[in-house]
Amino acid sequence: MHFDPQSLSQSWPAPSNPRPVVTFGAGSIVRDAHYSAYRKSGIPIAGIYDPDFAKAQALAAEWGVAAYRTVEEAASVNGAIFDLATPPAFHAEVLKALPDGACALIQKPMGKDLAGATEILKICREEGFSPDVAQETMEIQTALSLVSVGAGVSLVPEATSEAQLHGVAYRPILGSAPETQLSLAYRRDNRSAVTASFCALVRARKARR
């Protein structure tokens, strides 16, 4: 499989008529990541469902959106994109309730095990489509290994570009790139020369930015 990194688009035009998002699950990832990203991107948020209705109400009030009492009520929102930020064991129940032709984003593992993932795949096929699966990994080295064998592309920290793997090319993101804040912590009484050298290296790299 040949992949040309130059073929990657660096930006996409915003939708002229964005569809509303209905979220299943009211965990911290929805509050801190999903909803912030949707609002920043100009994507309207219709509402949220969670088995704990009080939890859904609290988050809905915080963001000024609706809170739904049942899966069916949430699934009935016309023209919505359904964002499943639910535990894997709950995915199948939600997918079965969605209308034909609905667009669904599953934000967590496809299933808690092979049987769960197989059931979800079966539901998708019964609805007449095949899901696009994005591999998630917490390990950067795993992501790089997947890219090196042609399994796709990945967003990685800039410092990762120092790791040279066969078949992996690094390209900067044009425009405003996402950033995160990191902290360096160490014991005050640590007199290790290795620790001192590492701290000096971090400070020097920070000063160059």
Structure report:
The chain is 37% helix and 10% strand. The chain is of the alpha/beta class and 209 residues long. A 5-stranded parallel beta sheet has the order 3-2-1-4-5, with helices on both faces. The radius of gyration is 21 Å and the shape is globular. The chain starts with 20 loop residues before the first strand and ends with a helix. The model has no long low-confidence stretch (mean pLDDT 84).
Task: Briefly say what this structure is.
This protein is α/β, with parallel strands linked by helices and 209 residues long.
Secondary-structure blueprint of this entry?
Elements lengths: L20 E4 L3 H14 L3 E5 L3 H11 L2 E3 L2 H5 L5 E4 L3 H10 L5 E4 L7 H13 L13 H9 L44 H16 L1
Parallel strand pairs: 1-2, 1-4, 2-3, 4-5
Helix pairs in contact: 4-5
Unreliable sequence segments: none
**Broad CATH class of the domain at 15-126:** Alpha Beta
Rg measurement, Å: 21 Å
User: In sequence order, what are the helices and strands, one letter per element?
Assistant: EHEHEHEHEHHH
Q: Please, what is the average pLDDT?
A: 84
Percent range for helical residues?
25-40%
Terminal-residue CA separation? 36 Å
General shape: globular
The CATH architecture of the domain at 15-126 is 3-Layer(aba) Sandwich
Give the strand line-up of the largest sheet.
3-2-1-4-5
